[in-house]
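Many introductory courses stop at the sequence. We go one step further.
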Amino acid sequence: MNIAWRRQRGLGVIAAIVVLVILAALAAGIVAFSSGQQRASALDAQSVRAWQAAKAGNEWGVFQVLNGVWRSDGAANPCPVDMGAGNKIDAAPLDLTALTGFRVQVSVQCWRYKEGSSELRLYRVESIACNAPACDTAADASVAGYVERRRVVMVTGS
């Protein structure tokens, strides 16, 4: 009877080791899932900031267009007569890194057309916001945590 009792003493240790291994694997899975959720949440917040920075770029570009900064009424009128491809007037960076951590590239295209007896201009203001040094390079898109948002606004002016 004494020999059988000694053989069964090691079974509890093996069972405890198996339970500890299963619990450790479960804990590692929970940690991996939790960190993935935190990264996704942080990228979501960055996405909203990028959208707001692009919106600020659009508003700044529309302000520039409507106040005549990006308008050329001289001999070299940038607006073609027909509604073709449109001429790119200018592109300007808007550095919002101190406030939001994003750079914004704002560009404007212009078309002119006649409506009745008046001549109108159609401006396309595009802004691209990103959290990289330059928003037009594809190399930054492969970096983890890169966020970019693009917005386009159409404005009509005389």
